[in-house]
Write a structure and sequence with these properties.
Elements lengths: L1 E6 L3 H10 L7 E7 L2 H11 L3 E5 L7 H8 L7 E6 L4 H9 L4 E4 L5 H19 L10 H17 L16 E9 L10 H19 L4 E6 L3 E7 L5 H23 L2 E6 L9 H14 L12 H25 L6 H4 L9 H24 L4 H11 L5 H20 L6 H13 L6 H8 L3 H12 L3 H19 L4 H7 L5 H12 L3 H10 L1
Parallel strand pairs: 1-2, 1-3, 3-4, 4-5
Antiparallel strand pairs: 6-8, 6-9, 7-8
Helix pairs in contact: 1-7, 2-3, 6-9, 7-8, 10-14, 12-13, 12-14, 13-14, 14-20, 15-16, 16-17
């Protein structure tokens, strides 16, 4: 078996190299990473890898300087250079430094890298026929064994695991990552999806291991448990430092995979036997973030529950007001039936919003005579993919808008309202207001506001916003026009406000909407 180290300062490029090639087929079972020349030199001295893949342009000590330092005492380690530079000077320096392969990054492919690795492995095998090759300490094997033990401790599937001594240094910090990838078929085990799962695990371990020893275990339902050893650092200092690194890892995952990331965290563990308890605590914290909160917090449970109560009150206030406007005041008693908190809070939220959709449809069908089976089915499916209070609320409000539109399609309006709608259809890209519409229709603003709300069910400003979002949907589906340009064409001067409004009415961002249209 062989070992390899990838020296590359760009995290995405480093992880792409690590995860895009099946290293097992080359009998490579140990892979190390370094993001600069100094770190690479330290890891080279510690692990003595058989092969190095080195980018020339790295911080602190460039690739050529690193290789020259290694070659002072070692002429046998095989080195593959990656470079964006086609300058002969670098190629000449690489040859002088006894580099096995030189690959241009601008044109490199997986096949080219694999061929380079095959060539250097052939060299290694021929040299092993001579003097005995050096032995290396297999730290990755220890890492894998600890990962297996951690899984046992988390699932409590092996009571004897608790008896192991000094397997993890204490204190340790436990976190749970919940990564929501784009919508996929249930049970999808395609290579593309598995690559994403491995990629996320690599981001978590790479980001954390720069500061703390850590062990990452992949769990069902796109969840990752992470045990972080804090060594001799004091509890509160370690908590703050780990929290910042976790947030950074979450942002990187979101950036490179377009997935939504939530993180639950436990308090510091002082005893190994408390790992299972800490895991339950971390999952409970994860459920707190189903309330729609972003980032991590050290707030005590009582404070977090108070925050949840305030969020529900605001949600109930906005939702009951909307239902009242639609003439569905009978729904108020159901809106106030808030689910009690538990670890399965995301599932309870899904049940709650699905119940509201179903009961609202029944009442609306009775009072307006509409048939809403397809819309109910569509929104129930969407709700079953949500995990936060805010996302469920936005979907429900979007559902109310849709059923209102379904009813309005069958209704005849007065001439003034018809003209106001036509005025909006013609001028939605301009900064028009109720007063502009009233002037165009030749009635007072007060009169138009009253009859428009009475006949259409919402006020004129809300109608304008909904109309602009519908027009934006058409432009998003039509091509790759910039979001800022679409926002401006649809009457939104503020790009950020457009994005927030779009997500509030549709449940997804403009970019995600465009992506979903293309996929379908």
């Amino acid at each position: 078996m062989y070992s390899l180290m990838i020296v590359e300062d760009e995290l995405l490029a480093r992880l792409a190299l690590k995860n895009s090639i099946s290293w097992e087929k080359f009998n490579i079972d140990e892979i190390y990473e370094a993001q600069d020349g100094m770190e690479a030199l330290d890891k080279y001295r510690k692990y003595a890898p058989d092969i190095l893949i080195v980018d020339i342009n790295i911080p602190f000590m460039n690739g050529i300087e690193l290789i020259q330092e290694i070659r002072k005492n070692d002429t046998r380690t095989k080195i593959i250079i990656l470079s964006c530079l086609e300058d002969f000077q670098y190629a000449k320096a690489a040859i002088q430094a006894n580099v096995s392969q030189y690959i241009l990054k601008a044109s490199m492919s997986i096949k080219e890298i694999e061929e380079a690795v095959e060539k250097v492995l052939a060299e290694i095998k021929s040299e092993k026929a001579g003097p005995v090759y050096r032995k290396k300490y297999n730290t990755d094997e220890e890492y894998r064994n600890r990962g297996i033990l951690l899984r046992k401790l988390l699932t409590q599937s092996a009571a004897e695991a608790k008896k192991e001594q000094e397997v993890f240094r204490m204190p340790a910090f436990l976190a749970v990552f919940q990564v929501h990838f784009e919508i996929r078929r249930e049970g999808d085990l395609s290579q593309e999806f598995l690559n994403k799962m491995n990629f996320v695990k690599s981001i978590i371990s790479t980001t954390l291991r720069e500061e703390f020893p850590c062990y990452v275990v992949t769990l069902p339902e796109e969840m990752y448990a992470v045990l972080i050893e804090c060594g001799n650092r004091s509890g509160q200092d370690a908590y703050g430092e780990v929290r910042m690194i976790l947030e950074g890892a979450g942002r990187l995952i979101g950036k490179y995979t377009s997935a939504e990331v939530e993180i639950g965290s436990s308090s510091l563990l002082e005893e190994q036997c408390r790992i299972a308890e800490g895991f339950r605590q971390a999952k409970r914290k994860l459920a707190y973030y189903s309330f729609g909160e972003s980032g991590l917090t050290a707030a005590p449970e009582q404070e977090m529950m108070s925050r949840l109560e305030r969020m529900w009150k605001e949600c109930i206030r906005e939702t009951t007001a909307r239902l009242s406007e639609m003439g569905l005041s009978d729904m108020e008693e159901y809106v106030k039936s808030v689910p009690a908190f538990s670890e399965d809070y995301a599932c309870l939220l899904q049940d709650y919003w699905s119940m509201l959709v179903s009961r609202t449809a029944v009442l609306y069908e009775k009072s307006r005579g509409c048939r809403l089976e397809q819309i109910v089915s569509e929104y129930t499916r969407k709700i079953r993919k949500t995990v936060t209070l805010k996302a469920g609320e936005e979907l429900y409000h979007s559902f109310l808008y849709r059923i209102g539109q379904e009813h309005k399609a069958q209704v005849q309006y007065s001439p003034a309202v018809e003209k106001a709608i036509a005025f909006a259809e013609k001028n939605y890209g301009q900064p028009i207001t109720l007063a502009d519409a009233a002037e165009a229709v030749h009635v007072s603003s007060g009169y138009l506001s009253t009859i428009f709300r009475k006949e259409y069910g919402i006020n004129y400003t809300e109608f304008l916003i909904q109309l602009r979002i519908e027009k934006a949907k058409i432009l998003l589906a039509a091509g790759n026009e910039r979001l800022a340009d679409i926002a401006e064409k649809c009457g939104f001067n503020d790009h950020a406000y457009f994005t927030r409004t779009f997500k509030k009415l549709t449940g997804i961002s403009p970019n995600d909407y465009r992506k979903s249209v293309k996929e379908s």
